[in-house]
């Protein structure tokens, strides 16, 4: 409706201007009456346009202002979120850096402790193996001694029997064998 009224006023104003200009010839005078009417028409046109378009222009600029305000708020929210994210990332990066340094120091300390532990275990194992070897050698020596004693006793018995058979009679031989056996048992214990 407002557009229709606006169009009608424009046509009336244009027609009025055209009717006024129709029959004048160029003379040296300034047509103040015509200028006044045209100024009145332009003023009326501006007033009517202002009256009719005022609400539309206000609504248009309110909408634009609201849109710009909304866009600014979104941009500020995005900026704040980006700054927060940047701070969090920087904080995590700092934590990772300090953790990395700490982890490296901890790993070096653990490696040194592990090295010392392994060296101590190796020494303990070497001592144990040495002790086991000494025990094995001692056992083998005792076995060899016992075997040698047994062999020597056996050979001594055989040699003494033969010598006794040759030199002594059977009754005396029996008595000597018994004594010899008793003495050997005492020595063997």
Account of the protein in words:
- With 189 residues, the protein is an all-alpha fold.
- Among the domains are: 1-16 and 40-55; 137-188.
- The chain is 93% helix and 0% strand.
- The chain has 3 helices and no strands.
- It has helices spanning 2-21, 32-167, 170-188.
- The longest helix is centred in the middle third of the chain and has 136 residues, at 32-167.
- The chain is rod-shaped, with a radius of gyration of 66 Å.
Quick structural summary:
The chain has helices at residues 2-21, 32-167, 170-188.
Distance between the termini: 142 Å
How many beta-strand elements?
A: 0
Low-confidence stretches: none
The biggest sheet, with number of strands, parallel, antiparallel or mixed sense and barrel status, is: none
Residue-averaged pLDDT = 83
Secondary-structure element pattern, one letter each: HHH
Q: Evaluate the radius of gyration.
A: 66 Å
**What share of the residues lie within helices?**
over 70%
Number of helical segments? 3
Structural class: mainly alpha
User: What percentage of the residues does DSSP assign to strands (E)?
Assistant: under 5%
**Globular, elongated, flat, extended or rod-shaped: what is the shape?**
rod-shaped
Which structural traits does this protein have?
single chain; 189 residues
Topology:
Blueprint: H1 2-21, H2 32-167, H3 170-188
Helix pairs in contact: 1-2, 2-3
């Amino acid at each position: 409706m407002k557009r229709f009224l606006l169009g009608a006023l424009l046509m009336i104003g244009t027609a009025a201007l055209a009717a006024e200009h129709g029959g004048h010839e160029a003379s040296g005078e300034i047509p103040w009456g015509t200028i006044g009417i045209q100024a009145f028409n332009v003023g009326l046109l501006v007033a009517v346009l202002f009256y009719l378009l005022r609400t539309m222009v206000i609504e248009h600029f309110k909408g634009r202002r609201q849109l710009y305000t909304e866009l600014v708020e979104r941009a500020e929210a995005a900026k704040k979120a980006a700054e927060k994210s940047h701070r969090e990332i920087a904080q995590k990066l700092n934590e990772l850096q300090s953790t990395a340094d700490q982890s490296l120091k901890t790993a070096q300390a653990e490696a040194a402790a592990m090295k010392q532990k392994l060296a101590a275990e190796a020494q303990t194992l070497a001592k144990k193996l040495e002790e086991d070897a000494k025990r094995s050698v001692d056992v083998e020596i005792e076995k060899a001694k016992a075997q040698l004693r047994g062999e020597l006793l056996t050979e001594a018995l055989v040699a003494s029997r033969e010598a006794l058979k040759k030199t002594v009679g059977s009754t005396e031989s029996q008595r000597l064998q018994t004594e010899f056996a008793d003495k050997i048992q005492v020595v063997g214990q």
